[in-house]
TrEMBL record, chain A:
<dbReference type="Pfam" id="PF23635">
    <property type="entry name" value="Beta-prop_AT5G49610-like"/>
</dbReference>
<dbReference type="Pfam" id="PF12937">
    <property type="entry name" value="F-box-like"/>
</dbReference>
<feature type="domain" description="F-box">
    <location>
        <begin position="19"/>
        <end position="59"/>
    </location>
</feature>
<dbReference type="InterPro" id="IPR001810">
    <property type="entry name" value="F-box_dom"/>
</dbReference>
<dbReference type="InterPro" id="IPR056594">
    <property type="entry name" value="AT5G49610-like_b-prop"/>
</dbReference>
<protein>
    <recommendedName>
        <fullName>F-box domain-containing protein</fullName>
    </recommendedName>
</protein>
<dbReference type="InterPro" id="IPR036047">
    <property type="entry name" value="F-box-like_dom_sf"/>
</dbReference>
<feature type="domain" description="F-box protein AT5G49610-like beta-propeller">
    <location>
        <begin position="123"/>
        <end position="401"/>
    </location>
</feature>
TrEMBL record, chain B:
<feature type="domain" description="SKP1 component dimerisation">
    <location>
        <begin position="136"/>
        <end position="182"/>
    </location>
</feature>
<feature type="region of interest" description="Disordered">
    <location>
        <begin position="1"/>
        <end position="21"/>
    </location>
</feature>
<dbReference type="InterPro" id="IPR011333">
    <property type="entry name" value="SKP1/BTB/POZ_sf"/>
</dbReference>
<dbReference type="InterPro" id="IPR016073">
    <property type="entry name" value="Skp1_comp_POZ"/>
</dbReference>
<comment type="similarity">
    <text>Belongs to the SKP1 family.</text>
</comment>
<dbReference type="InterPro" id="IPR001232">
    <property type="entry name" value="SKP1-like"/>
</dbReference>
<comment type="function">
    <text>Involved in ubiquitination and subsequent proteasomal degradation of target proteins. Together with CUL1, RBX1 and a F-box protein, it forms a SCF E3 ubiquitin ligase complex. The functional specificity of this complex depends on the type of F-box protein. In the SCF complex, it serves as an adapter that links the F-box protein to CUL1.</text>
</comment>
<dbReference type="GO" id="GO:0009867">
    <property type="term" value="P:jasmonic acid mediated signaling pathway"/>
</dbReference>
<dbReference type="GO" id="GO:0006511">
    <property type="term" value="P:ubiquitin-dependent protein catabolic process"/>
</dbReference>
Length: 420, 186
């Protein structure tokens, strides 16, 4: 019973003594990884509730719905002896939160996966707790860094000789009742494979479903134009995935946006907003939930945010409204720092995008900034000195069930899938 | 509803003339009477809704023996404030299953309402809300207690809530080592 002293004329009890009420009190504890481990050290009964009961962990996640941003994966390019082979160590997890919510990178190391070193050539996508890699044999490798679950996917033959790009996502939609992204470990997932067809440079897409274990039909864009993949990461907006691609027209190149609607299974290509070829760019989620586009000009460091006027779109010709131009030098307080540098020393790029919070990862010289494109709130993540190469940041969001999480590993994500 | 009927004791002399009153009278464990809007009580408390529908409401004061007068006053105060502040449908989601319903952050007035409560009053209100099946009030009060734990070390939580540590030093050390990253700053 309670340790509380008796006051007044009725027996004072504490809701903390009642398991059901204690659970109600612990559910609002923040979704950050250290929250529940820390309360589990209060006493043994608390630990029993938060560590050993999967249903309480599930309720904790359902309560918060949005998983925390734990960090990002990046592909550090390193060429030993000038060879083109990359080591598996090069795909690294980079934690973002401060302690005690900072997950040590080694816990999400790619080395724990059974393949030997030298097997991953490209990091392609990171979403809903899954990481998608391309291995040296030219096949996909989907893994769940939290549980260690993984599967190898054989790429359909018509894509094998092409430069491919791909996105991974949970098969459940945001509105699916009972599903919370960030707990997708045992849930079915999809891989959306995109490439430009060799003969005419037309985009084509094929979707793998882990529910069926099969690749579906290939969808081809039937509009005019020749395109090339830019290798950029995908952005998921509503029920569609978007990639930046390059459009060629009579020797002239322009940035375009390739969209694949997952529900209707339709491909669209729209012309991007005006930009210089030295600009860095990123597809973002507009404030109204539509498609937006951010460009970072070099060397002036002006960030422009555009929104696609979807209602005015005709024949794949989009109109874009410039909604914002901001001077990042003044926002980040970098004027003096930048003036001291030669332009040739500068390295200013958009490196990634967290679609859940609308945060753009921007590298300016040696600093990585995280900027929310609606509020313009920003955080300097770190200043780095040791690296020569800039790599794309793939934000990783997940609930992190510290302790025993073997029950999370579903049978669907361990194994090997052959192409049908 | 300008008159705050939840404050203080209801008048002893009040006579009930009509059967279809729009308020119900609740009696705390220590015999104090409180009047609350029937509509708000039925909407916010599954237990009171059941009693109203089942006709087990006593016009001279429905006995709630498990709830002291301070907690019951807060319950009634919450019901009245809720009736005045919130468009009714906003927080009622009976069709969504409890386990998956997304939590709605407390409104500003709900925060103020729980912030002014003492530690004991807050705990009593959690139990009263639980007893009366007041899901939203339970959420808001539990959220407040949870906020009091946020950012605190296990030692600090034990101290604030007067909880006995039943771990041995060795057991604590073992768990800490297992999850060293989560206890970086303690």
């Amino acid at each position: 019973m309670s340790d509380q002293t008796t006051t007044g004329h009725h027996q004072q009890t504490s809701p903390l003594d009642d398991d059901d009420l204690l659970i109600e009190i612990l559910l609002p504890m923040p979704p950050q990884p250290s929250s529940l481990p820390r309360v589990s050290l209060v006493c043994k009964r608390w630990r029993r509730l938060v560590s050993n009961d999967p249903s309480i962990l599930r309720r904790h996640r359902a309560h918060h719905r949005k998983p925390p941003l734990l960090g990002f994966f990046e592909h550090r390019l390193f060429f030993p002896d000038h060879s083109c082979r990359l080591d598996v160590d090069d795909i690294l997890f980079n934690p973002i939160p401060e302690p005690p919510d900072r997950i040590p990178p080694q816990l999400f190391s790619m080395e724990r996966f059974p393949a030997s070193t030298g097997w991953a050539t490209r990091l392609l996508s990171c979403r809903h707790g899954h990481v998608l890699l391309l291995d040296t044999s030219g096949n996909f490798f989907v893994c769940d860094p939290v549980t260690g679950g993984h599967v190898r996917l054989v790429i359909p033959p018509e894509f094998t000789d092409l430069f491919i790009n791909a996105a991974v996502l949970c098969a459940a939609g945001d509105e699916d009742e009972g599903h919370v992204h960030g707990t997708c470990h045992w849930s079915p997932f999809k891989v959306v494979l995109v490439a430009m067809f060799g003969n005419d440079g037309r985009p084509m897409v094929c979707v793998y479903s882990s529910e069926t274990g099969l690749w579906g039909n290939t969808f081809r864009h039937d509009g005019p134009g020749t395109f090339r993949d830019s290798g950029a990461s995908s952005t998921l907006i509503d029920h569609a995935l978007y990639w930046e691609i390059d459009a060629y027209n009579g020797g002239h190149m322009a940035r375009a946006v390739l969209g694949f609607d997952l529900d209707r299974q339709t491909l669209t290509v729209i012309k991007g907003p005006p930009m210089e070829c030295s600009d860095s760019s990123q597809i973002v989620k507009a404030m109204d939930g539509g498609v937006g586009f951010a460009t970072l000009s070099y060397p002036t460091l002006h960030l422009r945010v555009w929104h696609w006027n979807v209602n005015v779109c005709q024949d794949d010709v989009a109109t874009w409204s410039l909604v914002k131009t901001v001077d990042l030098q003044s926002i980040f307080g970098l004027q003096e720092h930048i003036q001291r540098l030669q332009v040739s020393e500068r390295r200013d790029f958009i490196l990634g995008y967290d679609e859940d919070d609308g945060v753009i990862f921007i590298n300016i010289h040696s600093c990585l900034f995280m900027l929310q494109h609606d509020s313009m709130q920003f955080k300097k993540h770190y200043e780095r000195t040791e690296r020569g190469h800039l790599s794309i940041c793939y934000p990783f969001r997940s609930f992190y069930p510290a302790g025993d999480y073997s029950y999370l590993i579903g049978p669907s994500i361990v194994g090997e899938t052959q192409c049908n | 509803m300008e008159v705050d009927k939840g404050k203080g004791e209801a008048e002893e002399t009040r006579k009930v003339a009509e059967a279809d009153r729009d308020t119900v009278t609740l009696k705390s464990s220590d015999g104090k009477l409180f009047e609350v809007s029937k509509e708000a009580a039925a909407r916010l408390s599954t237990v009171l809704a059941g009693m109203i529908a089942g006709g087990s409401i006593d016009d001279n004061g429905t006995d709630l023996k498990q709830i002291g007068s301070e907690a019951l006053e807060n319950v009634v105060d919450y019901c009245n404030k809720h009736a005045n502040s919130i468009p009714s449908a906003a927080l009622i989601s009976s069709s969504i299953s409890f386990n998956t319903a997304p939590f709605k952050e407390p409104e500003e007035w709900e925060r103020k309402f729980v912030d002014r409560l003492s530690h004991d009053a807050l705990f009593d209100l959690v139990e009263a809300a639980n007893f009366l099946g007041m899901e939203r009030l339970l959420d808001v009060t539990c959220h407040k207690i949870s906020e009091m734990m946020k950012g605190k070390s296990p030692d600090q939580i034990r101290e604030v809530f007067n909880i006995k540590n039943d771990y041995t030093k060795e057991e604590l050390e073992e768990i800490r080592q297992e999850l060293a990253w989560a206890f970086y700053d303690d």
